[in-house]
């Protein structure tokens, strides 16, 4: 049995999947399995995944949804086949730096009080790296108000026992694109806590047009996730006053001219 099960939902990522998988196979720490589930891709993503499965038959498991189900459903499918003590995430268009698994495993092995470990990310596009994120070392429940997301999802590693205790990812269309935030609320509500390493171990592909995918509906889902999360962790009532502000911010961003948003987006990623 492998120490780590890497779960990856793949969808229309034919141009980037190979580079993403190669970054995993180049890890310094190799005691892991990779479980990929194709979520109804209409390009060559699944065929590329099959070729890698042939190349690494003992290390890769490949699943396929009959239609597009969303990331929360897809990751839960991967979890059903996961055998590792630790669950790591990876997206099909991102890159794990060589020491990522080694350092995350070392942290969880040495710090039994933590169920989650993650790190800030480097952001890049076709023109190269263009920004770096930040992260709070030891997020507390009060930090959930002003610092969403509390952990970067894609580079995280979690104890499987803790993840299964909260029944994995909640499958609900109102959580699409925010399934990670909902997960952190669920885990903290059960007493699990996490830690952010002060190292850049992961590169996220975040193109300059990503904002166009963030519709008003999507932003309203973010407010919904925060409201339900507050209830889960029994957030002090005074912090609920922040939710109308989040609503107004989402409304403002939805109507903001593209060029202005891009400037703000770039500044926030520095």
Automatic annotation (TrEMBL):
Assigned EC number: 2.4.-.-
All copies of domain Glycosyltransferase 2-like, residue ranges: 5-163
Keywords annotated in UniProt: Glycosyltransferase, Transferase
SUPFAM superfamilies registered for this protein in UniProt: Nucleotide-diphospho-sugar transferases
Top-level division of the source organism's lineage: Bacteria
Gene3D superfamilies per the UniProt record, alphabetical: Spore Coat Polysaccharide Biosynthesis Protein SpsA, Chain A
InterPro entries the UniProt entry points to: Glyco_trans_2-like, Glycosyltransf_2, Nucleotide-diphossugar_trans
Pfam families: Glycos_transf_2 (PF00535)
GO MF term set: glycosyltransferase activity
Family of this protein: Belongs to the glycosyltransferase 2 family.
Name used for this protein in its record: Glycosyltransferase
Organism of origin: Anaerostipes hadrus
Taxonomic lineage: Bacteria, Bacillati, Bacillota, Clostridia, Lachnospirales
Gene behind this protein: spsA_1
